[in-house]
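Holo model, S-adenosylmethionine. Inputs:
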Amino acid sequence: MACLTKKQFRLIASIAKDHWGLNITDQKYDLIKNRMAKHMNCGRFSDVDEYLDYIVECSSDAEKLELFDVLSTNVTSFFREAHHYDYIERELYTPLRKHAISKPGSKIRIWSAGCSFGCEPYSMAMHADVHLGGIDNWDIEILATDLSNSALSVAQRAVYDKSSMANIDVDMYMKYFIQKNHGDGEKYMVNDRIREIVHLARLNLIELWPFKGPLDIIFCRNVMIYFDKKTKTEIINRMYDMMCPGGIFAIGSSETLSGIDVPFRSAAPSLYIK
Ligand SMILES: C[S@@+](CC[C@H](N)C(=O)[O-])C[C@H]1O[C@@H](n2cnc3c(N)ncnc32)[C@H](O)[C@@H]1O
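Output:
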């Protein structure tokens, strides 16, 4: 296996920090060494130095993002961390459906920030359809963003294999997926009705965001694990500013806002209210 020198590791960490805000600490050395060894097997470069020179001096954005993919993870699943969905059903969708609260123009705006392969925003769309009594009765849009080109292209295709369907019950499967039989096994495609309200876009969270709020829900789950405290504080405060009063903000269950200076009110584990 190709060895990664400490100098090369530090250069990779500084590229990751400058371009994508990733905080690659020394504890990640073995992980990055293994991933780089695999990446170098593609054979385009004779060694890590040549590859890193290319990345620094002449690579395109897309090529740089191939390195981003080597350094980050895209682990996701449908209806991951179900208690977030239960909370939204109980505190927002049920009161809306029963007219206990209202939204002008029946307008609901949601952002899945760091949407990876799309399981998260499609889950949100299916969940809204079930618990709002049909998305057609609402002006609902789900913005789904990620930096990874490869993750976004999976999200764009919206075709998943059987192993991804573990949290999808039979009713949902029948209502929201189309079964496709490919040569490489059964595949399931999210149907057009659900896809129509999910707008996918590439966005680097540490850069400017070309859209405005107010947003009713932001899921920023299992994304900030990559960022240092300063970057996290800045991003979460920008998200706070984009939300409507009472808006729901979710982070991953293994993440915390403790020590982050942001005026969100804690509502439930890993859930916050503006
Ligand atoms: C572990 S996945 C989380 C997916 C989903 N939110 C979930 O919880 O299932 C983290 C995602 O964050 C994205 N990400 C990491 N840094 C980013 C950045 N600077 N800008 C935008 N997306 C980023 C990665 O590409 C990856 O798809």
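The radius of gyration is 20 Å. The chain is about 40% helix and 20% strand.
Archived with the compound record.
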